[in-house]
Amino acid sequence: MNDQRRRPTQSPSQRSGRPYRRPQKDPVRVLAFDALRAVDERDAYANLVLPPLLRKAREQGDFDHRDAALATELVYGTLRRQGTYDAVLAQCVDRPLREVDPPVLDVLSLGAHQLLGTRIPTHAAVSASVELARVVLGDGRAKFVNAVLRKAAQHDLDGWLERVAPPYDEDPEDHLAVVHSHPRWVVSALWDSLGGGRAGIEDLLEADNERPEVTLVARPGRIDVEDLRSGLAAEGAVAGRWSPYAVRLTEGGEPGALEAVREGRAGVQDEGSQLVALALADAPVDGRDEKWLDACAGPGGKAALLAGLAAERGAVLVAAEKQPHRAGLVARSLAGNPGPYQVITADGTRPPWRPGSFDRVLVDVPCTGLGALRRRPEARWRRRPEDLAGFAPLQRALLERALESVRVGGVVGYATCSPHLAETRAVVDDVLRGAGADAELIDARPLVPGVPSIGEGPDVQLWPHLHGTDAMYLALIRRTG
User: Fold this and answer.
1) Which of 1, 111, 140, 456 is the most buried (most CB within 10 A)?
2) Distance (Å, rounded) from C-alpha 190 to C-alpha 459?
3) Which residue, 441, 446, 448, 447, is CA-closest to 469?
C-alpha cells in the first residue's frame, strides 16, 4: 500500500515567487464578453442581447452613460470587424484559429478591436484584455492572450492590412473582404447589385461598418412628429432626412427607455422601412380603398405605421404573421392605434382569406438581411450563399399569394431588407412572368419624393452609403386582371 503523502498544490504566487494578485473585474469588458458569448453560443443578435444586459448593469449601479457607450462600441465594433481581426490574429497565433477555444477567441477579438479599432492606448488595451482573460478564462489562458495581443500590438490597423490583405489588383473581392470585414461572397453579391466601380462598393462596405443613428417613427394618430422631436431635445433629436414621420437621435441613447417608445406612441424604425410603408400607402389604386393587408407583419414596425395611415383614411389594416410569438409582438405594436385593425396568426403562403379581399397588400418577405448589416453585424458571418436557395421559393410563394389576395385595381408592395438581385428583381420578374397580363409594375420612384439615387426604376433600391438607411428594396405591382 502506497501511503506516500501528496505534495500540496502550489498557488500561482508560490510558483512564481511573487505575491498573488486577484484579477480585477472590469464590468464594461465582462459585459461585452458576455454579449459576444451569447451571440456565438445561442446565435443571438447583439441588438437583442445588449439592451437587457446594459439595463441590468445600470440597475445594479455598475454603469454610467460612458460605460454603456464603451460596452456598446466594444460589442458592435468587434462583430463588425471580426473578419479583419481574424486575419490579424491568425498571424499572431501558432495554430489555426478554429483550434482556439471560442471564449478565448472572443477575448482576443475584443483585445484586437481595442488595439486596432479604438483610441485606447496600446498598454491599456493589452492589460485590460489580459485582466478580462484572468476573470473569465483563468490565469493560464490569460498568458496566452497576453502573448498574442503583444504580437498584434506591433502594427496599427493600416500596417496589418498591408500584411494580411491581398493587393486589390490581384484579387479585388478578397482585398475588399479583408479590408472591410465582409465575407467574400457578400462583397461579390453587393457589388453586383450596386454596379459601378471600386469607389461605390468601398463606400457601401464602409457604411456597413458604421454605427447607425437611432431613428424613431411618430406613429400617425398617436403622436405628432414635431411633438416627438421637441420632447427629445436632450437626445439631440432632429427631423428625418426623407420620411415626414422620422426623428433621428444624433446623441444615441437607449430608445427603449424613452416614454413615447414605452407607451407605443413612437417606435424604433429605420427610415428605409418607413419609406416602404409610405410608398405603398400612397400608391394610386382604382376604386375603393378600405382594407389593407400586411402579410408578413412581424415584428410589427411597418404594420404600426400602416395601421395609423389606414385609420386616417377610414381603412382597416389586417396584420398577418405566421409565428405566434411574433404575432404577439405585432399586437403589442398596434395596441393603441386610433382606428380599427386586426392581428391574426396566419401563413401568407396559405392564406385563410378569400382571393381579392384587399385593396393594398404589403409583403415584406423573409430574406438574408444583407441590407441591414449595420444593425446586425453578426448576420454577415452567419449567412451562406446557399441560404438564397432556401429563401427563394418562400419569397416567390408569398408574392404570388399577395397578388391573389389583392383585388383588380389594387396594389401589392414587395419589399426586402436585402439588395441581393436573387431576392429582389429576380423574384419580381419571375412572378410577373407567371402572372402574365394580370399584373404590371408601376413606377415606385415618385412615391419616395426627394430621395436621390434610387435606381433606374420602376422599382426602388435604397443604400446605407447614399441614403443613410438600410438597403431596402421595393417594387409596386398593380393587379390588372
Assistant:
1) 111
2) 17
3) 448
Instruction: Using DSSP bridges, classify how beta strands 358-364 and 291-294 pair: parallel, antiparallel or unpaired.
Output: parallel
User: What does the pLDDT look like over 416-462, one tens digit per residue?
Assistant: 999 999 999 999 999 999 999 899 999 999 999 999 999 999 999 99
| Residue (of 476, 447, 408) closest to 282 by Cα position | 447
- DSSP β-ladder status, 214-218 and 266-268: antiparallel
Length of the chain: 481
Is 417 among the residues known to form the active site? yes
DSSP state of 295: T
CATH number, span 271-479: 3.40.50.150
Task: Show me where the domains of the chain are located.
Answer: 22-152, 165-208, 214-268, 271-479
From the candidates 92, 296, 367, 417, which is the catalytic residue? 417
User: Which CATH fold would you assign to the domain 214-268?
Assistant: Alpha-Beta Plaits (3.30.70)
Quote the cell numbers at residue 469.
438607411
Residue 384 has pLDDT above 80, yes or no: yes
Is the Cβ–Cβ distance between 74 and 29 less than 8 Å?
Answer: yes
Helix 139-152 × helix 122-136 angle, to 10°: 160
- CB atoms under 10 Å from CB of 69, counted, come to 15
Superfamily holding 22-152: NusB-like (1.10.940.10)
